[in-house]
Automatic annotation (TrEMBL):
This is Damage-inducible protein DinB. Belongs to the DinB family. InterPro entries: DinB, DinB/YfiT-like. SUPFAM superfamilies: DinB/YfiT-like putative metalloenzymes. The keyword Metal-binding applies. Keywords: Metal-binding.
Length: 163
């Protein structure tokens, strides 16, 4: 099979990408809300972390990563700074990070999405791939949350209902 190199054509705008990501964040927030408080912090299956720890990972990564991209900083991220004790604290921080994501995402010029960036000093990929990693990572952890909810006898929201 022969392939021909062609110019890159845009099939999604940065605004659409952000909307897609925020749709996923809306759904993950709903999953957090569905957990009973105790189980959010304690329930696990097969040695996986409780969902609260997964949520803290997502909170600790996305906003700081976008700030790093905008400010060209490659500092490592840390899950140690935020230690919530309640579901309400997680939801409050989730909303704050959503605002941070919006603020920093909108500061990334279109041309930068194709630039390689060493995220957290560890991952050398184009900016758009780093952003797709955040979305993929969130979907992965939310799926674990879905399994936990089902194990607890709670029907999770439909995965396609993101808004």
């Amino acid at each position: 099979m022969n392939t021909t190199a062609t110019g890159t054509k845009q099939f999604i705008t940065s605004e659409q990408l952000l909307g897609h990501w925020q749709g996923h964040r809306n759904l993950t927030r709903r999953v957090i809300e569905m957990f009973p408080e105790k189980e959010l912090f304690e329930f696990s299956i097969g040695g996986m972390r409780p969902f609260a720890k997964m949520a803290v990972e997502l909170i600790s990564m996305a906003g700081p990563a976008l700030k790093g991209i905008v400010e060209t900083q490659t500092d490592a991220y840390s899950e140690e700074a935020f230690k919530p004790a309640t579901k309400e604290e997680i939801l409050k921080k989730w909303d704050e990070e959503t605002d941070e994501i919006n603020r920093y995402f909108n500061q990334i010029p279109e041309a930068r999405f194709q630039e390689t960036f060493n995220l957290f000093g560890q991952y050398e990929f184009p900016v758009y791939q780093n952003i797709m990693y955040f979305v993929d990572n969130e979907i992965h952890h939310r799926a674990q949350g879905f399994v936990y909810l089902r194990a607890l006898g709670i029907d999770p929201p439909f995965f396609w209902e993101r808004f």
